[in-house]
Amino acid sequence: MKLFKRKDDKKTEQERVEERREEVLAAGRKFKYPLQWTKHRVVINTILITTVVIGIIITSGWLALYRFNMTDEMLFRVTKILPVPVAEVISEKVLFSDYLMLYRSSIISVERQSSQNKTEGSIDDLRAQYRRDALTEAEKFAYALKIANDQGITVTSEEVAEEFNRHLNIGGIERSEESFLKIISDNFGLNKGEYERILYLSLIKSKVEIEIDEKANKVAERVENMLKKGSSYTDIAKALESSIIYEETGGMVSNQNIDGGRATEAMKLEPGEQSGRFTSINGDGYYFVKLIKKTDSEVNFVSIKVPFTEFNSRFEAIREDGRVNEFINPE
Fold first, then answer.
1. 156-185 pLDDT per residue, tens
2. For the chain, what are the domain ranges?
């Protein structure tokens, strides 16, 4: 016989169940809260690691572009997505992608032939020169874009498409788009979108030069008037001297000659005929052409060029004023 009862003996069955339940829950909390804390720490660590990785990528990209002058295709593709500037002309950003596009289109054929014709030292010199030229050209395009924006000058997608189609048939040869794209890919490393970007920039610059170069427009009008009165090309060259550039082919040349579009225009004429005023494919002036002789694939002609000068004069002026800021040293 028990003289004393344990305290638990006085509890009801319900109370003992509740008590046991609380003991189980308390034991579970010992595992629950450390697990929650661990998850929280994992999230924080993941954010920190991601931030560090992104920082490393950004720093590496910045060094590759702005310090080491790297120009590989991967960086080119990145700059097409991220519009980072390589320079600034007044308030207009010069896109790194435009600079790399122009540089790569110039150097690619040289690099492909370097093992055959050039020493590595001479290739390095060419790379430095082409980087300098590409950056200057990109800066001029940016300046043209600024003037175009200020003066409401535009180039439509239809104009770009028309210019692209004109390039398909340069030299009087009809090419398929597929074959033409292969040519520009093999020789310039460009796809269609990149080639159209160059056409767009060239058209903008050409329109700007036509708009602002009053001197060239007046000289071109004088040439037109003199031709209407029967003056010969040599007579015009003597009369206008340094205002124009007179050239003779000196014989038959290919109708695919790279000459600003003169050979192509000459192929449209009959011997003795002369063209009207047309803008150079390069967008650097007006041309007048007179055909002397032609065959199915060659032409002999004389030409007069009225060069654009106002745009370059303005660009050099703002460069001297320190309003062209470059973020890399291309050389």
1. 999 999 999 988 877 567 788 999 999 899
2. 12-65, 83-212, 214-308
| Geometric angle at alpha carbon 247, from 170 and 251, rounded to 5° | 70
- Any residues with CB less than 8 A from the CB of 234 and at least 6 apart, and which? 246
Q: pTM of whole model > 0.85?
A: no
Q: Write the DSSP symbol of residue 152.
A: T
Whose CA is closest to 148, among 96, 214, 202? 202
How does pLDDT run across 65-75, given as a tens digit for each residue? Answer: 777 677 888 88
**C-alpha–C-alpha distance, residues 187 and 146, integer Å:** 30
Taking 80 as the threshold, does the pLDDT of residue 37 lie above it? no
Length of the chain: 331
Tokens matching residue 172: 């009087």
> What is the arithmetic mean of pLDDT over 59-86?
80
H helices present in the chain, as ranges: 13-66, 73-81, 96-117, 120-151, 157-168, 177-188, 192-212, 214-228, 233-240, 262-267, 310-320
CA atoms within 13 A on the CB side of 207: 20
Q: Is 153 exposed, middle or buried (0-12, 13-18, 19+ CB in 10 A)?
A: middle
More reliable by pLDDT, 35 or 298: 298
Distance of alpha carbon 202 from alpha carbon 220, whole angstroms: 21
In SS3 terms, 178-201 reads as HHHHHHHHHHHCCCHHHHHHHHHH
Q: Report the C-alpha gap between 281 and 206 in whole angstroms.
A: 9
DSSP 67: T
What is d(CA 54, CA 50) in angstroms, rounded to the nearest whole number?
A: 6
Selection from 58-67, 154-163, 177-186, 279-288 with the highest mean pLDDT:
154-163
Q: What DSSP string describes 238-304?
A: HHHGGGSEEEE--S-EETT--STTHHHHHHTSPTT-B---EE-TTSSEEEEEEEEEE-SSEEEEEEE
